[in-house]
Specification:
The protein is mostly helical. The chain has two domains: 97 residues, no CATH class; 136 residues, no CATH class. Helices cover 78% and strands 3% of the residues. It is built from ten helices and two strands. A hairpin with a 3-residue loop joins strand 1 and strand 2. The longest helix has 27 residues.
Length: 264
């Protein structure tokens, strides 16, 4: 098998899994409400399960308990005022700190981001509706897909080879361009100002930061994938780390800049 064949050997499996995720994800976003919140809670609970398994693999029961606790806390928080939701969101992290034997600081820091990401996604869908949730998803997906293909076709210098050996500067920068195009088209369709283009690029960067953060945890713990739940993609964290970074970023800066720009 030549180098070119090896480079694209996982493409069919990745595309098949991606198609299933797109169908399930779009259905959840379109329906909204309770089914969407339940889907988000499930994804975040599985993410916490994978995180604990990476950080403290000798405690599978604790991983399951924290996953259930985190997913339940996130689902409950969706139906509470924000002031009451916040301590409930953070409570599982405090429990996990007392349960784990290794990497407790990493667990607390990253699991908080998982919970805030889930809360931000549910808030975006509930407050702004299907269209803006779809915009966020498309920005993240385009960043990932364009970066994947551009990085393999163009190649060039690596972004951070010690942590993410496959990520290139060409794929990273091309992802920003793709996000900018998504922002430009969305601004035209919605009447938002041109600032949405800059926000889309920043969202793209935040999604890449989420990916890099998860890659750093995997390198630190010596694992290749967060799990094997998704054929061709690894685990839930491997697939949704970018969405988590983007969601947390939007949750924070949305309070500063007024989102959507020109429409609030």
């Amino acid at each position: 098998m030549n180098t070119s064949d090896t480079k694209w050997s996982d493409l069919a499996v990745r595309m098949g899994s991606a198609a299933v995720m797109v169908i399930v994800g779009l259905a959840g976003v379109a329906i909204g409400g309770h089914p969407f919140n339940l889907l988000v809670a499930l994804v975040c609970g599985l993410s916490v399960w994978e995180l604990v398994r990476m950080l403290d693999p000798q405690k599978p029961a604790v991983a399951l308990q924290l996953a259930l606790l985190s997913g339940t806390a996130l689902l409950v928080s969706a139906y509470l005022p924000a002031g009451w939701a916040l301590p409930i969101l953070l409570a599982p992290m405090m429990v996990g700190f007392g349960q784990l034997s290794h990497h407790r600081t990493i667990f607390m820091s990253y699991a908080v981001l998982v919970q805030l990401a889930g809360y931000g996604i549910m808030s975006l869908r509930g407050d702004l509706g299907f269209g803006w949730m779809l915009w966020l998803i498309v920005v993240v997906v385009v960043t990932d897909v364009v970066g994947y293909f551009a990085g393999r076709m163009i190649g060039g210098p690596k972004f951070w080879p010690r942590v993410s050996p496959k990520k290139t500067w060409s794929g990273t920068a091309t992802g920003w361009i793709g996000a900018a195009i998504v922002g430009w088209i969305t601004a035209i369709l919605t009447g938002a100002t041109g600032e949405l283009i800059g926000i889309s690029i920043a969202i793209s960067m935040a999604s890449q930061m989420g990916d890099i953060a998860e890659s750093a945890i995997k390198r630190h713990t010596g694992v290749k994938d967060s799990s094997r739940l998704i054929p061709g993609h690894g685990g839930v964290l491997d697939r949704f780390d970018g969405m988590m970074g983007a969601s947390v970023f939007l949750l924070i800066v949305g309070q500063i800049i007024g989102f959507p720009p020109g429409l609030v």
